Each structure stands twice: as C-alpha cells, then as structure tokens.
Amino acid sequence: MNFFKTKQRTPPDLVRGLRDAIPRLDHGAPGGEVRRKAAEDISKNLQQIKGILYGDGDPLPELVAQLAQETYNTDLLHHLVVNIARFEFEARKDVVQIFNNLLRRQIGARWPTVEYLTGKHEVIFAALAGYENEEVALNTGMILKEMLRHEQLSKILLYSDQFYKFPHYIETTTFGISCDAFANLKETLTRHKPMVAEYLDKNYDRFFSSFTTLILSNNYVTKRQSLKLLGEILLDRANFNVMTKYIANEANLKMMMNLLRDKSKNIQFEAFHVFKVFVANPKKPPQIETILRRNKDKLLAFLKTFHNDKEDEQFSDEKQFLIVQIQGL
Amino acid sequence: MPSQNPRKFIGAVEDAWELFSDCRDDYTLGSPIGFGASSVVYAAEYRSQGKRIPCALKVIDLDSLPPHTLELLQRETVLMGLSKHPNVLRVRGSFQTDDHKLCIALRLMNSGSVADVMRYGWAGGLEEEVIKTILQQALQGLNYLHVNGFIHRDVKAANLLIDDDGTVLLGDLGVAADLAEDTSRQAGSQSKPAIITAEAALRSQRSSSSGSGSKRISFEAPPNGGTRPRMGKRKSFVGTPCWMAPEVIQARHYDSAADIWSFGITALELTQGRPPRSRESPQKVLLKTIQEAPPSLDREGGTFKYSRAFKEIVDSCLVKDPSKRPTAEELLQSPFFKSSKKKAYLVGAILKDLPPLTHRQERRVAPGAPKHGTVDSWDFATTVHSPTTARHDETETDFKEDDIFEINGNLGRRCRNISWAEPEEEDSEEMEPENGDAAASSPESENSSPRTDASSPLMYASSEQESSPEPPSPMPPSSGPLPVPKAHKSESLAVPASSVSSGQLSSSASSTRSSPGLWRKFKDLRRRSSVIKPRLS
C-alpha cells in the first residue's frame, strides 16, 4: 500500500488534514454525511502518516523529521489521545502505532518526542484518563505504557494527583482493562527504581494507604497482583528505607498474617513472601516481635503444614528459616 | 453499547456479532463442551431484552493459574479486545465471580476446532477444496492480525475454530504477541544478557522426559542487553513444536513470517490428519526442523490427491529463510486461494453430519464435571481447590483477630537505623531479570533465571490437546488431563478451551518458582537471610 506513488501529500498537509477533520466529527447530524466523511478523512490521514513512519521497512528520515516537527507544532499528539474515542475502531490502533513510533524516535542520544512531552503533562494525563472509557482503554493503555518507559514521563505521572486514580481504574473496569491498568501501575512503580524509591520514601503514607486498598480488594486478581507487587517493591534493594518502614508497622503485619490464611492458595503464597520479611528482620521493633511471639505456637504449627506440596527447594528453605526464627523468639 | 449501532468502517469489517454484557446474571449455563487444565467451556445462553442468544462461556479458575499464565491470559484478553474481524475470535463479554473464576463469553463455535472435526470424521486428512476453504479464512484472520502488528504464534488446526455455517475463526491468542512491544531492555539497565538458544532448550527438554512431539513450549529468551530496540521482531520461544518455525526454535528474531511457517505446517496437518513429525519427541522435532529439509506435501500418498498448485503454496510457506516466505496478503492474492469456495461449502462437505459439540463431549464429562444449571447454581466444587486451603480452615492455627491485635503500639522506636543488609555490594552479580515491561518481560525473565535453566525452561501444556504420545493412534491423540476415551478429544470447541489455560497451567509446576517476581524475591531473601543469620548467632 504505497500511497505516494499516486499522490504525494507532505507531512504538514497530512497533519493539518487530520487536525481539521477532528472538529468536523461533530458537525451535521449524527450519523450524517459530514461526520462520516470526517471519520473517513481521519482514518485516511492516519494511515498515510503511518505510511511515512513505517515506510516499507525503511522510512525516509527527512519526511519523518518533518512529520514529527509538525506534530509538535500543532499539539497533534494531545488531540489524538483526547479524541481517540471518536475515531473508528481500526483508526484507534493507528493512533497507537503513530504515537508510539514517534515516542521511540531517537536522534543520537536525544529522544525528541520525550522531550516534547516532558513539557506537555496533559498528554500523559489524557492517556491515563483513557481508562475511563472501556472502548479505548486498551489503546490509550498502550500509549501510556510506552510513555512510562521514560523516566521523565513516568516521574510526571508518579508525582501527580492523577496517579492516585489508578486504584479506581483497576477496581471499576472489566478484567482485561483492569489488568492493563494494573500493569501500568506496576510499570510506574518498578521500572525506574531510584526515582520511585525516592518518591515512596517521601510519600510513604499517602502511597501505602492507597495501595492497601488494592491489597484488600474484593477482586481476586487485583488482590493477588497487588500483593505480589508489594512483595516486589519491598524486596527491591532500592526501596530499603521503605521496606524498613513497612515492616515496622504492626497493622501491616496483621494484614499479612490474615492473608496467609486467605482461601486462595496463591494469595497465601504471595502473602508469605511479604510476611517472611517481617520475620527475617534481625532488629524487629518490639510491636512486631510481640505479635509474633504471642502467636508463636500457632505460627509454628501453621508454617509446618503451609504449602508442603510445593516442590520448591528455595521456598522450603525459606520456610524452614522462618520456623527457626520464630522458634527463637 | 456503541457497537450496537453498526456503522460501516473502512478497513474494518462489519461485526455481525454483537457484544454481550459483562453482567453475570445475563448468562445461563449449559453443558460443558470443552475442558482444559484450568478451564471448562460451557455452552451457554445470553439473555438480553427478551432475546436468547447461544454463546460459549469459558470459565477459568484464576487461582489455579501461576503468575506467568495469568499474564498470558491478560495478554490474550487485550489482543482479543483489540481485534475485530470475522475470522478472529472475539471476547463478547467477561465477568468475574466471587470465587476467583473468570468467565469469558465467546461466540459459540458449534463445530469445534478443525482438529476436532478431523479427529471425528476425517482422521486421514481432508480434501483439497475443503482445506482451501478453511485456510483461506484462516489467512484472512491472520492477515488482519499481521497488518495490526500482532503475531499469533500458535497457528494450528486445533486453533482454527469452525462454526455451523462454515465460518473459520482464529482462536487462542494466548501466546500471541504484539510486535510493537519493545522486546529489548532499556539502555542503561544492568541486566545481564541471557541468550538461550535452541540447544539449551533441547538440552533441558531431554531431562523433562516427556515424549510427544506436540506439546506446547513457551520459553522466552531475552534479547541482548544494550542493543537498540528492535522493532517488529521478537525472540520468544513460544509455540507448539511441530508447528514451530526454524527461526523461532533458534531464538532468532522473528516476525509474522513465523506464523506463515506454522500455517504451512497446518496445511500439511489438514492433508494428513496430523502435522509432520508428530510422532517424534519434541526435541527431535525441534532439531529436525532446524537440520532437515522442510517437510513437503505428499500429493499422492494420502487419502486424497492434491494439486501441484497446492504443493507449491505449501512449499512457499515452508522455506527456512523467513524473508522468502509470502505474507498472508500475498497468499490471499494467489490464484490458489482466490479460487477458494465460499464458507458455506464447508457445511455440506464436512459439517452436516457432525453430531453437536455437546454430544461429542458427553462421555468426557465423566469425572465429576458440573451438571447443567443456571448461573445461580454454579458450583465449582469439582475444580481443583487446594487441599491446603481446606486444611487451613480446619486447623486450630486460626489467628483470632484478638490474638493479633493485642499489642501496645509501641512505635517509639523507628527502624530507620536498621541496616541488616548491605544492598550495594552484590549488585553487579545480581542480574535482575528484565524489569518493568509487565506484559512482555515476564516470560523472558522467567527463563533467564539460571535456576530454571537447569530444571525446566520449557513449559509444557500438560493438557494440550495432543499432548500424549500415542504412536498407534493415526492422529495427534488428544489426551487431556482427564481420563478420556480417545475419540472424544479434550479441547474441541468454540474456544481455545484448553489452550490458553492449559498451556499455561502446564507450566505451573515450575513456574511458581520461576516467575520473575518470586524468583527475585527468593534471591533477595536468600541473600538477606545469609546476611542476617551470622548476626543472629
């Protein structure tokens, strides 16, 4: 599909054509000719832009540069994300491909689109807000994910109030979308470790009070995933300070001990991997040690039968280690 | 629901099949029509505004899925959600139950998979016209995925679902991948590159001793660290051995051409009732795929005779150099496929005498599968619940709230000053298995861990339809996890019943341990423990 053999349209033409067509989606009667034509124009322009970016395996650098510049000049990326729900089903996927292709563009060590977006926070938040519309959530989720690869952009989201909308999106959407939102939350919290560690340390209370709602979710998948993520966060060395804070709090310990007894074996198992850190702490604060000591016998009996069917040497080792620790209390 | 107002889109094909709802009360459960390791597919009915629409409900026990599998399932759901094509199976609704079951509503594909149909009545292979009609539709679906940047990665007859009207759909996107996902790690990440070649795969496969050539393997080798992101190519080792392209086995970068190879193998499967080399062990299959000449079509030796044109098509797909294979689009434009019959042809040719799917399943229901019932009466007691769960409920190790709670919150001492691990020093040797990239990285990291390398980097679909080695059987036998009379295969159906879930479940033995997150935790705790212990003594 080479559109350029027949008709050469320059990148500015395409970008302008696209931008001009978007408002026309509202003109005329619903379902009328004007709207249909507008949708058609949008799809066509998107395809041609995609054609420039992907070429036939080898896109022309000058055209791509011209196109990229034009999208920056016109704030096209923002318009695309904000209006994606009004585009046709297939066109939405083109938007994702175009957006992500531009985002990956590199000139030497520079990432021009990333630099551009660093000053355009609204684009990031618009992509996040895509979770409010199930029709487009998977598309905007892919865009968001691509942005989160870049520390500057990820940081903008993490430090924003909007970041705390994730639990809402995760809890209120259907399986596939909820999982996608969770994956992006996880991406935000695990990809750029030092940056995140600093954030968590500074915003410990706000973050964990929000995150705990996910751990206590009634949704099985949410609960399981967030518990696992908690384990990953705590056991990451970058988050050492955060971990020590977390395992000094008896409410957290109680929560994990209750989760050890969850009816789902996977949740029990994930809880074990957080619980173990409380026990392994060589300098347990008194409030923690007291709980453990009070429950010493029960814990020992419990651990001895805990997931004995797992053929996992390391798990068994760890469990044994915990048993020894608890016996020594 | 917007999709209820059908508009004609360019590029998109009209979706004649409306979306259902995400509300469990709208569905009534019927008989089971397919079984997987951690899922059961039921015939069901969707009720909406007085209408009753037959559908299939795939019920997956999420708690029996290891983490890696859960991620594959998520990926499948996403890709299905982004696909709208008459030849690609689409999720029409989904909801979760309180007891961690995920229910996915799908179109009821009354005739099951093409592999099913063959096993039932065409064990020696199908006629050329029939094959052509099936494959042409499969190509339409495949072309749609490829144009949108997806690879299916598990094209085979068992994943071609067929409806009473002759429509063929590509199912089981469980291992499908999005080509746009950046498969390489970010520059600057400290991960150690772990290239795992087919040799490693083969080596460990030997140790796992199972013998059939058609188990599913899923195994991702992370690409080189520090290299430029390679767009549009992946390196994962995923698929089912008999259908796997050489470049996939060799863990080279591959793209949609790998599906074309599998498509060629599928064509052979349709002529013989089984794929080439299906009676050999997986490692032999993999080795031979790399070392020997590609298989070809035997025009005269089977139940039916095949044309030269067909053989040429198959041979073009089975060229070892992926860049020399035709694209799905090119195949569709070939005179061979252009002359294929309309889908209705399949009705008279193979479908009309087929007993309904539910009947073909009934003897399989044996080991305590749920009886018919409505949603209200769902009782999943027959699915595997961990014995440990029950045990815990009974033992006296209950922590009473009071027990735990009675504490005098002495928070006076902060533990900021605790330093019981020196994080920095071991960092260099710690190769974090590819962090981030939630969806894409998990399988890769999983296998990059040295631990799995020795034990089982390959994950088998224990219950994948053709998983057991049964040499006497003329076709890939279908032994599911349930003891089943052979003629009644395990996975038939509208839906990749066993596939998604079984593929993954299979891995459960090793993967709880090898999942990246857990793995990392283990390593960490271990290290910490060793730091801690001496101090305590």
Automatic annotation (TrEMBL), chain A:
Pfam families: Mo25 (PF08569). GO terms for cellular component: cytoplasm. GO terms for molecular function: protein serine/threonine kinase activator activity. It comes from the Eukaryota. One of its GO terms (biological process) is intracellular signal transduction. Belongs to the Mo25 family. This is Mo25-like protein.
From TrEMBL, chain B:
It comes from the Eukaryota. Belongs to the protein kinase superfamily. STE Ser/Thr protein kinase family. STE20 subfamily. Residues 469-484 have a biased composition (Pro residues). Residues 523-537 have a biased composition (Basic residues). InterPro entries: Kinase-like_dom_sf, Prot_kinase_dom, Protein_kinase_ATP_BS, Ser/Thr_kinase_AS, STRAD_A/B-like. Residues 203-216, 438-450, 498-515 have a biased composition (Low complexity). Residues 422-435 have a biased composition (Acidic residues). Gene3D superfamilies: Transferase(Phosphotransferase) domain 1 (1.10.510.10). ATP binds at K58. Keywords: ATP-binding, Kinase, Nucleotide-binding, Transferase. Residues 27-337 form the Protein kinase domain. One of its GO terms (molecular function) is protein kinase activity. This is Kinase-like domain-containing protein. Residues 201-235, 358-377, 422-537 are annotated as: Disordered. It comes from Roridomyces roridus.
